[in-house]
């Protein structure tokens, strides 16, 4: 029920965003498309990613992930994956910044990171407490960003597989147990 409610809220939010653009009376085409992907569906987890593209001259894409722990029936929040009081935001953010920096230095990507051409206030500082995420089939944490959130639109919607060493020792016990199996 919680997952259905959250998905309905996302659809309503996507509709409101579309209507906001329509109300601006843009000259030309205004459209919005929403769809979903099943990221994981096994006996332990169900992860869905709803994504919406808003077209108003150009386009912007954003998404929301929902992860259901099938064993408990609980829709997971990012904080549920970590021990209470742990600095999971700092640990994940540091690993993502490391990955961004490595990719930029290797000429593989372009991200809004300190030291580049982007104004400091636009640079990636930290993930949000409720950042989009899912657990892949191997129970590894994947963090997702919306288009333009951490990179130019040409980078699409970046995903980062978080290094297990970066979050070892702060995972919730139930997730450590799942990863050990």
- Helix-strand category: alpha+beta
Overall geometry comes to: globular
Q: Specify the number of helices.
A: 4
Q: Distance between the terminal alpha carbons, to the nearest Å? A: 29 Å
CA-based gyration radius: 18 Å
Describe the biggest sheet? 4 strands, antiparallel
Strand arrangement across the biggest beta sheet: 1-2-3-4
Helix content: 25-40%
Low-confidence stretches: none
Secondary-structure element series: HEEEEHEEEHH
Q: What fraction of residues sit in β-strands? A: 25-35%
Mean pLDDT: 90
Number of strands: 7
What distinguishing features does this structure have?
single chain; 181 residues; alpha+beta; 4-stranded antiparallel sheet; 3-stranded antiparallel sheet; 4 helices; 27% strand; globular
């Amino acid at each position: 029920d919680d997952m259905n409610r959250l998905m309905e809220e996302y659809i309503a939010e996507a509709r409101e965003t579309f209507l906001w653009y329509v109300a601006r009376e843009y000259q030309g085409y205004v459209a919005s498309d929403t769809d979903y992907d099943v990221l994981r569906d096994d006996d332990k987890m169900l992860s869905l990613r709803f994504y919406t593209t808003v077209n108003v001259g150009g386009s912007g894409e954003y998404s929301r992930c929902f992860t259901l722990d099938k064993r408990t029936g609980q829709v997971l929040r990012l904080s549920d994956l970590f021990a209470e009081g742990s600095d999971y935001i700092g640990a994940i953010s540091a690993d993502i910044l490391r990955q961004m920096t490595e990719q930029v230095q290797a000429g593989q990507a372009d991200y809004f990171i300190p030291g580049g051409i982007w104004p400091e206030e636009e640079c990636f500082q930290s993930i949000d407490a409720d950042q989009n995420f899912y657990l892949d089939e191997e129970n590894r944490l994947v963090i997702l960003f919306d288009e333009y959130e951490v990179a130019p639109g040409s980078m699409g919607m970046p995903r980062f597989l978080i290094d297990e060493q970066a979050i070892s020792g702060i995972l919730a016990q139930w997730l450590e147990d799942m990863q050990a199996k």
